[in-house]
Amino acid sequence: MIDAPRIQSRSELTAMIIDFTSKGGAVREFKRGFTSDWRYLRDLLQGFGYEVKIEKSWYIVRKIGQGGRPKRLGRTAAIKAIDEILVAHGLQPFMITKHEFLEARP
Question: Is the overall model pTM greater than 0.85, yes or no?
Answer without folding.
Answer: no
